[in-house]
Design brief:
InterPro entries: LRR-containing_protein_71 (IPR053040), LRR_dom_sf (IPR032675). Helices cover 43% and strands 12% of the residues. The protein is built from 13 helices and 14 strands.
Length: 486
């Protein structure tokens, strides 16, 4: 085949330029997309000139679902124990039930950041893990991951264990959380001299489970984290499990956690195993679980919240009144444009239509606002407090249901306090009253067998049975509603 001849130099340049453009388009089309996370992230890090090198291992989590029980599993309400247990299982190292489906080998260079990406059976990315990374993680790697988040809505879990975590990396993780669906963060066995783990709780996000085991957390870091979980803080409405296992928390840190438990009504699990607590520290944790007197500061903050609620409600009510009056006036104008059938008297013809009654408008607006705005709800509202001798008392934190105090320095006195708490919570008759369902105290300076332990176990067994009965009744109601919809 003879080579093509070009009549002019301009024609040769034009055809050459078109061939270069088509070659560039083909190269661009070969580039991975953000949906192809395993190929896209290393490519993007290379384009961003990120050092050290980044590699991704793809792992599929195989989960067998019984076909016979599948409908029941999809329709039943999720148990609180399954919620907590799934959060605790997330912190464990994956076992042989995971199947490796990538061509990567284990012989990585020591300067390589290996990111493990876990997929479910539907080929959806659900978890990322960086375990025992030899070099420090570049903060740009987290920025590159954040660019992929909009394309992976099922990504719920993020784990960094061992080396590699730095203050700047933790800051970048805190920045991406509000723009993701990540609910579980595990930073076990990581140590930051700055101890700024609290940055994960600064902004409103979907974080529900936070594990900080073996992080050498002291009382100062514990205090900063506890303050982020106080009432009206963003994380106080989302975080359900907090694990401080194997740290350096003493009675001082437990005191700050106790102050947090006075106000927080979302936290379900608190892990303090293998710390430096004694009976005083355990008392700080257990006291908020019973009735307690509100301090002057708590009463003052409660009044401020009530005032803000009333002011907001009044503002919305006034706006609603204006809308109702405008709606009535528009309807009146339509009626005025129609011919009048009869009039009682000529003298009253100008006052045939009466102005809207302001009292009726206010009552109607208040009723509509109450239906939509709702009543004042607070941790210390009228349903959760009692008046005794002129003082305001809270009924206590009845939401925390799982407490781990194993392997500390507790004695028989902590058992007596725990028994007192369980007896009090058993006698509380309140809707949505859960209380402690499981307490772990093994590994302490307590007797192996005694009457008090039997009493505590009896209280816990009855509490779990009552909760299971309530859960089954709710499940039947949900199932009946589902069947009616079907």
């Amino acid at each position: 085949m003879k080579p093509k001849k070009f009549n002019t130099v301009s024609e040769f340049k034009r055809i050459s330029a078109n061939s270069v453009k088509s070659r560039d388009r083909s190269r661009k089309s070969e580039n991975p997309t953000p949906r192809q996370f395993d190929q896209f992230l290393p490519w993007l890090c290379q384009q961003m000139h990120i050092c050290p090198h980044v590699a991704v291992e793809r792992i599929t989590k195989e989960k067998n679902i019984s076909i016979r029980n599948r409908g029941y599993q999809l329709s039943r309400s999720k148990s609180i124990f399954s919620t907590i247990q799934s959060a605790l299982d997330f912190t464990k190292i994956p076992n042989h039930s995971l199947s490796l489906t990538t061509s990567y080998s284990d012989g990585y260079n020591e300067n390589t950041i290996v990111i493990k990406s876990y997929y479910n059976n539907f080929n959806q990315l659900i978890e990322l893990a960086i375990v025992d990374c030899p070099p420090s993680i570049n903060r740009k790697v987290i920025q590159a991951i954040s660019l992929c988040l909009p394309f992976h809505s099922y990504l719920k879990k993020f784990k960094i264990n061992g080396n590699g975590l730095t203050e700047s990396v933790l800051y970048e993780i805190g920045k991406l959380l509000p723009h993701s669906n990540i609910t579980d963060i595990c930073l076990d066995d990581t140590y930051l001299p700055e101890g700024n783990y609290y940055v994960l709780l600064d902004k409103l996000n979907n974080l529900q489970n936070l594990s900080l085991c073996k992080c050498k957390i002291n009382d100062d870091v514990c205090k900063k984290i506890a303050e982020k979980l106080h009432n009206e803080m963003p994380a106080s409405n989302t975080l359900m499990t907090l694990d401080f296992t194997s740290n350096n928390i003493t009675n001082s840190g437990a005191r700050h956690l106790g102050l947090m438990l006075r106000q927080n009504r979302t936290l379900l699990y608190l892990g303090l195993a293998d710390n430096l607590l004694d009976d005083v520290g355990a008392s700080h944790i257990l006291k908020p679980l019973m009735v307690f007197s509100l301090t002057e500061d708590e009463v003052y903050e409660l009044r401020k919240r009530k005032f803000r609620y009333a002011a907001k409600k009044l503002e919305i009510c006034k706006e609603h009144e204006k809308q109702l009056i405008a709606q009535m006036n528009s309807e009146e104008d339509k009626e005025n444009n129609q011919p009048v059938i009869c009039r009682k008297s000529i003298g009253r013809s100008k006052h045939l239509y009466i102005e809207p009654n302001s009292v009726n408008v206010k009552e109607l607006a208040a009723k509509n606002i109450m239906d939509t705005f709702g009543k004042f709800e607070d941790v210390f509202d009228e349903d959760n407090v009692v008046y005794r001798n002129g003082h305001l008392y809270s009924l206590g934190n009845l939401k925390l249901c799982y407490l781990n105090l194993a392997y500390n320095h507790l004695s028989y006195f902590s058992l007596k306090k725990l028994c007192e708490v369980l007896k009090y919570q058993t006698n509380i008759k309140q809707a949505d009253c859960r209380g402690l369902l499981r307490v772990v105290v093994n590994g302490n300076n307590i007797p192996t067998h005694c009457e008090l332990l039997n009493t505590i176990e009896s209280y816990l067994v009855n509490a779990v049975a009552n909760y299971a009965t309530q859960a089954r009744s709710r499940s039947r109601v949900n199932m009946s509603k589902y069947c009616v919809r079907k």
